[in-house]
Amino acid sequence: MLKLSFLFGIITISIILFSANLPSISIYAQDIQYYYNNINENNSSLLNDLENIKNILESKVAKLATALQIASNLPQILQPPNINLVDPKVNGIPEDADIEKRKIAKILMDQFKEFNSILYYFNNGDIYFFEPFQDQLNLTATNFSFRDYYQVVNQTKKTYVSDAIISKATTGRNLAVIATPVINKDNNMTAILSGTINFNNYDEFLQTLNLQNNTRLVLVDKNGVKIGDSNENETSASKESFEKKQFSNLTSVKLALKGKSGSIEEKFDGKESQITFLPYDLFQNKRILLLIQDCNSGVNNSNKCIDNNNNKELHYLTRMF
Question: Considering the domain 78-198 in this protein, what is its CATH number?
Answer without folding.
Answer: 3.30.450.20
